[in-house]
Amino acid sequence: MPLTVPPPILTPDFGPKADVPSIVKGVIDDIRQNGDAAVKKYSQQFDKWDPKAGFKLSQEKVDEIISQVDPQIISDIKEVQANVRKFAQAQKDHLQDFEIEMSPGVHLGQRNIPIASVGAYIPGGRYPLLASAHMTILTAKVAGVPNVVACTPPIAGQIPANTVAAMHMAGADHIYLLGGVQAVAAMALGTETIDVCDFIAGPGNAFVAEAKKQLFGNIGIDLLAGPTEVLIVADEKADPYMCAVDLLSQAEHGPDTPAVLITNSEQVGRETIQHIENLLPNLSTRELAGTSWKNFGEVILVRDLPSAYALADQYASEHVQILTENPREALTAMKNYGSLFLGANTCVSYGDKCIGTNHVLPTRKAAKYTGGLWVGKYLKTCTYQEVTDDQASGRLGELCARSARAENFEGHARSGDLRAHMLLGRKYDWIEESKPS
């Protein structure tokens, strides 16, 4: 039975709902036709940003910006990036190239080849999300991507120095102060001053997500991220205060963040609701967090933990936090989640900011079919084959011809026939006497 969740927070007026797909299409079409001039126009329109020196930051400008960053922030960026790098490198180390001999003289292999050029979008409209620089840029560089173009918007007309520092330290080859659809379209299509990228990664608002969706096919993308999601599975021994704090920690991402608690304890559920109502008034981000909680918050009471895990799998949430006596049970009990956070010592915010796993994760039930951004997204797993034994090639030719003719592919069959003719001496009516014997 659901528990009610009515925090007394008013919903702010965000104005009439925009026709996001049409707006995005118009911007993309304009940039496709007019390049830098269109990019400049939309930067002025959407971000009030028109730098005289252009959108790209020179190395001298980057150095100047970084010199203004608090040394403690620089130190923290280094530590966080070391964590992200270590985990991404471990992922890459488990992706091995290989070659096997299927039968004598028949060699098949696989290589993991880095994408040549990646565009990384680092959001910054509401918050300076420097952590996204670690997740998108650094992971691409660990994968071996030789060219990473990184874009982030100005914030209220100002350069986000901390984010620029994170982008540079993550290994970005080119940094642009450019945001929104215009940034994504410029990286995907190329302009007079921005080289075209083969792949774009990074989270963003609804307009950024729609731009990635419309441009997919021209370029590859990591995934289509929606609003941040958090789901907590808690048993009767969970701390309701911790449940409340952790739900609000994600609800502050925006006004449309689902924050869900599934518990087998009515007491935990009701106390969590009460704690949230008490905590919200003193939270600096209460307008966003309160709106999300009012409109998308849920506390659901279930019979037992197996029921909780089963229901959580139906939600397939981006972040799933397990606050139970035996949290590692979730590793076998659950299948659908962006990332799991096991136990009271492990909060979702660790994954967002510093622990080392990637925070670009599937939302809107996409966790039912995909995981999040990781080093493998920047690698093309490509196969190759070589047949060095004549007899093996001839036998494959016969097998290929029979298989192809079963599908009415005569041209395919003749490629097999030719090898069987050349290497095994087989006779085929279609092969002229003058052809190789």
Automatic annotation (TrEMBL):
Its EC number is 1.1.1.23. Its cofactor is Zn(2+). Keywords: Amino-acid biosynthesis, Histidine biosynthesis, Metal-binding, NAD, Oxidoreductase, Zinc. CDD domains: Histidinol_dh. It is an enzyme of class 1 (oxidoreductase). Belongs to the histidinol dehydrogenase family. Catalyzes the sequential NAD-dependent oxidations of L-histidinol to L-histidinaldehyde and then to L-histidine. This is Histidinol dehydrogenase. It comes from Rachicladosporium monterosium. The lineage of its organism: Eukaryota, Fungi, Dikarya, Ascomycota, Pezizomycotina.
